[in-house]
TrEMBL record:
Pfam families: DDE_Tnp_ISL3 (PF01610), Zn_ribbon_ISL3 (PF14690). Residues 261-283 are annotated as: Disordered. This is Transposase. The lineage of its organism: Bacteria, Bacillati, Actinomycetota, Actinomycetes, Kitasatosporales. Residues 292-356 form the HTH IS21-type domain. It comes from Streptomyces lunaelactis.
Amino acid sequence: MNEVLPQLDELLFSSVEGVLIESVEVTDTVVRVEARTTAGRAACPECGYWSGRIHGSYLRFPRDLPTAGKLVVVSLRVRRFVCAEDSCTRKTFAEQVPGLTRRFGRRTERLRSTLVSVGLALAGRAGALMTDAFKIPVSRNTLLRLIASLPDPATTTPRVVGVDEYAQRKGRIYGTVLVDVETRRPIDLLPDREADTLAAWLAERPGIEIVCRDRAPFFAEGATRGAPQALQVADRWHLWHNLGEAAEKCVYRHRGCLRPTPAQPEEPQEEPEPTASSPWPTGHRFAERTRAKHATIHALLAAGHSKRSVARQLGMTLNTILRFSRATTPEEMFTGQWQSRATRLDDYKPYLDQRWQEGCTNAWKLWEEIKEQGYPRGYASVRDYVSRTLRGKPQPVGPRPPSARAVTRWILTHPDALPEGDRLHLKAALANCPELTALAEHVRSFAHMVTDLQGDRLPEWIEAASATAELPSLCHFAQHLLRDLDAVTAGLTLPWNSGVVEGHVNRIKMLKRQMFGRAGFELLRKRVLLA
């Protein structure tokens, strides 16, 4: 054993000074190591005065990393020293072993650092399951407390910083993430996305030279006030995304041009004479019930029963039997408040009929369209009108026209990357509409500026796009660029962008899902900055 102890000392406490192993006891489940401290003196944590006067000693039992699947417990004898400084408020103090123990700690520092690494990677619940596999079981709350107790990492002022928002609670609470674009590391998280908060953060770091951001007004204002010396760069992806949204609105506005003109028949066909139809569709519960009652009453009357006898047999009043007996057909009974009432949908039915003939058969899409026109009611009435009335109407014969989103995707895709079928469909769609042809030219011109970093051509493009009165969405997008012209020009000229920031926003979403509702701002900030 005398030869084994030095080897264990070197193996277990190679990075720790002032610890001597006295004995090792191994059982079926536990490895107990008895050790003691050997330092001659210790520094008072209150005044920093070094003392060598020993007041007493006591045992500490910190848990260590398991070995061979067995729990390791260190029985460490530490000493309590007397502070020799008269002005110090402490009379005695216990010594701590750097790298092994800390005040009130029940785990060794290496076990604590291992649990912290698990918590940063997997958070509470999943991390607790992983510690069970490591034979060092702790609760999920313990892991979260260890993460919350970590200090913030030391950071330097970045030269190029990226700014973007992330959702703490989607649609309600948003924060701001800041990333060093050059090192691709997160720097800080802010609890909101207000311009004042961002301006205060940037004002504390005057060494920032470039700020990469989207075109949100609160980020633009915060960067202008907090870092007036920095160059602001609008992100190219957001510019392209905004152009895509404007292009889709333009295509949707000219969706009538997407359907090819049907060929006119050589000889006019005679329209068949309209046949008399029931004023109420077959299958309606009121109509079917009325038809059944009418047939039953007339059958009993034809069999020789009197009207009073029929009323007794069917449980109806005599007046009801008289009204049914006078009606030669059940359709004569289709009167009342549920027949031919005026509804708020009546004003929009011509538009619904037109869209149905154009090929739009999605009731939800039709409801969204008339809702934008001012329809005040819900989706159910549109669904009922489509299923009961429009489903039976014939649609134009021919191929279904492409959707506005599909045509927009074709326009936004590089021509060399389009499949042959999509290229032919796009050519046919543009041939019927000069406005969409102009839109495609403007989009491709903007794409050349984005890919080739030709920001000097932006004023010329804005002037050309603003002159397209037939494409109001594109005109509005071009005029909106003038409000942030310097940042947009820099974004289309310099190689910097916010792509790395978007990656960290997605990472924050993953961390929030891992934490199962425990992703408060402080805890989430620790994981983002330290993981």
